[in-house]
Amino acid sequence: MDHVHIIEHPILQRDLTVLRREDTPYGVFRSTLRDVSSILAYEALRKLRMKEVTVATPLEETQGHVVDEQVVVVPILRAGLGMVDGFVRFLPEARVGHLGMYRDESTHEPVDYYSSVPAGIEESLVFVVDPMLATGGSAAGAIAHLKRLGAKRIVLVTLVSAPEGIAFVHSSHPDVALVTAVVDRELDDNAYIRPGLGDAGDRIFGTS
Q1: Distance in angstroms (rounded) separating the CA atoms of residues 182 and 184
Q2: pLDDT at position 70, please?
Q3: How far is CA 16 from the centre of its chain?
Q4: What is the pLDDT of residues 131-189, one digit of tens each?
Q5: How would you label 169-194 residue by residue, b for 16+ Cβ within 10 Å and e otherwise?
Q6: φ and ψ at residue 18, rounded to 5 degrees
Q7: pLDDT at 1 over 70
Q8: Burial grade of 3 (CB within 10 A; 0-12, 13-18, 19 or more)
Q9: Residue pLDDT, tens place only, 13-70
Q10: How far apart are CA 143 and CA 96, in angstroms?
Q11: Above pLDDT 90, what percent of the chain?
């Protein structure tokens, strides 16, 4: 799985445990997901293009660096919204698009219902974010949609991934890297990740 980057960090492991617990309150779940997303974003942003600039310190001029590319963060609605703050805390200038998809509970296939993506995506580094990568259908569909709009550099960032979802996304988009906190055991008969953490959207927004 050379295209998969599993982020191993003690704080991430601790917070993932909080997110897995079924009795974690909604507010704690949201704030913990925001913290976890910051760790994932920090690692995912390692490939940012930078350029040197000259800055004046209180004592003399020296060389520094600034970000030299546009970044677009695209959450897959609705659960992906819980990961956006993790990116914009490091890059407040990042633009945010939205892709609405839901899973048909009978076919387990993704259904598109909304798209709003900033202009200039062709030249941007695009991060598709969604806490759960289960079957991979929604993620692969979102990536395909962005490619049709001209996106060329795409990174998928998830919290919990299933082997089946990883395989599906990689077979559909072998050029797209995946950054994740953990790869869980499997999908069950209802295409839920085991052990997983339940429905991330319900747990973020308190709709379970």
Answers
A1: 6
A2: 95
A3: 15
A4: 999 999 999 999 999 999 999 999 999 999 999 999 999 999 999 999 999 999 999 99
A5: bbeebeebbbbbbbbbeebeeebbbe
A6: -60, -45
A7: no
A8: middle
A9: 999 999 999 999 999 999 999 999 999 999 999 989 999 999 999 999 999 999 999 9
A10: 15
A11: 82
| Distance of alpha carbon 121 from alpha carbon 141, whole angstroms | 17
Q: Are residues 67 and 119 in contact, defined by beta-carbon separation less than 8 angstroms? A: no
Distance CA(150)–CA(121), nearest Å, equals: 7
Write out the DSSP string of the chain. Answer: -TTEEE---HHHHHHHHHHH-TT--HHHHHHHHHHHHHHHHHHHGGG--EEEEEEE-SS-EEEEEEE-S-EEEEEEETGGGGGHHHHHTT-TT-EE-EEEEEE-TTT--EEEEEEE--TTGGGSEEEEE-SEESSSHHHHHHHHHHHHTT--EEEEEEEEE-HHHHHHHHHH-TT-EEEEEEE-SEE-TTS-EES--S-HHHHHHT--
